[in-house]
């Protein structure tokens, strides 16, 4: 077991993190979305350590994080006009563009694909580490594969203690859900993962309609047809069995109250707890998808600590930022939905 240190984010710890990354080590650090497990994108040994620490399937590619546009030009074989428009509008920020890859990054970081996901994080500490190390870092979310992504250093420590030398504590992540991922490989861009940068915002910049990958809202039936390997796997799941429950609050309350027992929890919106006779936890303000995105993963992790066995979750909207919340929740539920509006 390796001793894992936790240091506050500052220039000193940025230098230390950059040094470790240059030496092929893996460091957990904050971004504006979720915490990442960062290793040198050009070093196969570092990439191997990332996959090992997470227990991640080797066919699921990593996102390369950059701090300036020159790095992007080195990594991408081709940067289309649409890609330029999006990166100008949203970088630095929580948008990952999938583009054809050059030979600059090691193949292992992209799971052998001929494309790569790239993003320039808004978090200044993350960018500082890239500047200081002089190389892009590849970083998946810093959770054990399949678990909810960590949005604070404590959650990272729970999953990564003993597996990596250093965790940088930069406080709570702003967004709370991972970046929006969009494939720019075809004429019509494809949304592979919704995030806080919305489909509508992207369409506003491109002045055209984009498509949404199969698997974002519905389960993949034939995994050979998947556009993004990440869409194949169960994700964001606490130990409990999660169900999304569609319907009015009064019907939800009746439903969960009739099922109340020691292991059952309702995952509801702020203020709804008082109507519920079972154990409950809120994941944010019903009218604010941003607040739900910010809180969802923390709530899912908290359910594990409370010993939840079955979780019934109120259903978020499916538009704007809420699409990102819905996507994470439906995946943590393994696509299981109970619709109280269609009771027979
Ligand atoms: O916000 C984020 O993006 C965070 C922080 C740490 O930056 N990172 C993150 O990485 O969420 P990860 O590895 O947990 O998710 C990356 C997603 C996966 O679903 C993966 O399949 C997809 O991006 N992806 C990466 N490269 C791809 C490619 N070339 N083609 C299609 N999908 C790709
Ligand atoms: Mg992840």
Key features of this structure:
single chain, 344 residues, alpha/beta, eleven-stranded mixed β-sheet, 10 helices, 30% helix, binds threonylcarbamoyladenylate
- Secondary-structure class: alpha/beta
- Spatial extent as radius of gyration: 20 Å
- Please mark out the parts with pLDDT under 50 across 5 or more consecutive residues, or reply none: none
Enumerate the distinct ligands: threonylcarbamoyladenylate, magnesium ion
Quick gist of this model?
The protein has 344 residues and is α/β, with parallel strands linked by helices. It is 30% helix and 19% strand.
What features would you describe in this structure?
With 344 residues, the protein is α/β, with parallel strands linked by helices. 30% of the residues lie in helices and 19% in strands. The strands form 2 sheets. An 11-stranded mixed beta sheet has the order 1-8-2-3-7-4-6-5-9-10-11, sandwiched between helices. A 5-stranded parallel beta sheet has the order 14-13-15-12-16, with helices on both faces. Strand 10, helix 7 (199-206) and strand 11 form a beta-alpha-beta unit. It binds threonylcarbamoyladenylate (TXA) and magnesium ion. Magnesium ion is lined by residues 140-141, 149. Residues 140-141, 149 line the site of magnesium ion.
Topology diagram in text:
Blueprint: E1 5-8, H1 11-22, E2 27-29, E3 36-40, H2 44-54, E4 63-65, H3 69-75, H4 81-90, E5 95-100, E6 115-119, H5 124-133, E7 137-138, H6 153-160, E8 166-169, E9 180-183, E10 190-193, H7 199-206, E11 211-212, E12 241-246, H8 249-257, E13 264-268, E14 279-282, H9 289-305, E15 310-314, H10 321-332, E16 337-339
Parallel strand pairs: 1-8, 2-8, 4-6, 5-9, 10-11, 12-15, 12-16, 13-14, 13-15
Antiparallel strand pairs: 2-3, 3-7, 4-7, 5-6, 9-10
Helix pairs in contact: 1-5, 9-10
This protein binds threonylcarbamoyladenylate (TXA) and magnesium ion.
């Amino acid at each position: 077991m390796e001793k894992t240190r936790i240091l506050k984010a500052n220039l000193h710890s940025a230098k230390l993190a950059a040094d470790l990354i240059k030496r092929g080590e893996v460091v957990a650090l904050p971004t504006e979305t979720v915490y990442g497990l960062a290793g040198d994108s050009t070093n196969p040994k570092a990439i191997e350590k990332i996959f090992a620490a997470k227990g991640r399937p080797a066919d699921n590619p990593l996102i390369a994080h950059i701090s300036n546009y020159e790095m992007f030009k080195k990594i991408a074989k081709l940067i289309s006009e649409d890609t330029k428009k999006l990166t100008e509008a949203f970088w630095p920020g929580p948008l990952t563009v999938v583009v054809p890859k050059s030979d600059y990054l090691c193949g292992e970081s992209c799971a052998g694909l001929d494309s790569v996901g790239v993003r320039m994080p808004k978090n200044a500490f993350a960018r500082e580490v890239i500047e200081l190390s002089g190389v892009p870092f590849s970083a998946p979310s810093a959770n054990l594969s399949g678990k909810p992504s960590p949005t604070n250093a404590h959650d990272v420590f729970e999953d990564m203690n003993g597996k990596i030398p250093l965790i940088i504590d930069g406080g709570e992540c702003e967004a709370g859900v991972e970046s929006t991922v969009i494939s720019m490989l075809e004429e019509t861009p494809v949304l592979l993962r919704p995030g806080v940068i919305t489909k509508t915002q992207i369409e506003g910049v491109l002045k055209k309609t984009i498509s949404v990958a199969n698997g974002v809202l519905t389960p993949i039936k034939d995994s050979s047809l998947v556009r993004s390997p990440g869409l194949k796997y169960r994700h964001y799941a606490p130990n409990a069995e999660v169900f999304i429950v569609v319907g009015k609050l009064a019907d939800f309350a009746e439903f969960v109250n009739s099922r109340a027992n020691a292991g059952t929890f309702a995952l509801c919106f702020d203020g709804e707890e008082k109507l519920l006779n079972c154990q409950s936890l809120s994941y944010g303000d019903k009218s604010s998808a941003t607040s739900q995105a910010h809180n969802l993963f923390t709530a899912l992790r908290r359910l594990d600590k409370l010993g939840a066995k079955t979780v019934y979750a109120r259903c978020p909207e499916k538009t704007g930022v809420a699409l990102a919340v819905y996507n994470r929740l439906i995946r943590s539920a393994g696509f299981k939905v109970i619709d109280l509006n269609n009771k027979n």
